Amino acid sequence: MSSTVGDEQILRQADALTSCGAQLVMAAAEKEARSHGWLVTIAIADAGGNPLLVKRMDGAFAASFQIAVEKARTAAMFEKKTGALEAMANVKDGESRTALLSAPFVLMCGGLPITSKGSTLGSIGVSGVAPDQDEMIASAGVTAITRILSSKL
Which InterPro entries match (predicted)? Predict the structure, then answer.
């Protein structure tokens, strides 16, 4: 069976984050949070921003659940750190800020895409502590899976 019509390709194969991969990211992120005594919610999403795994640690504030899920969704859909999107929204000209703030995305540090070979596989979103701490936790999760993926190439 051909995956082309004329000269145009109609299918592409893409790597995807699995539930096992999501658990690995979660474990590393949770370990980082616990090492500092931080109570957070951690959300792992697929490349489309759909949740694969979410954990609200005991004692994490209730709103952190939805915020973490939305940070993960935003990072996946834009294929960018949510902190970078926050910086874009905080420009002085007003135009970028208005455009980004009118969309249903969370533009705060703590959401990171998970990438390999130039493709977004999924994302992680963390909420519950200061923005730079949320991102530190998310980064621990991304680093853990990136190390494994790098060793397999």
Answer: GlcG_carb_metab_protein, PduO/GlcC-like, PduO/GlcC-like_sf
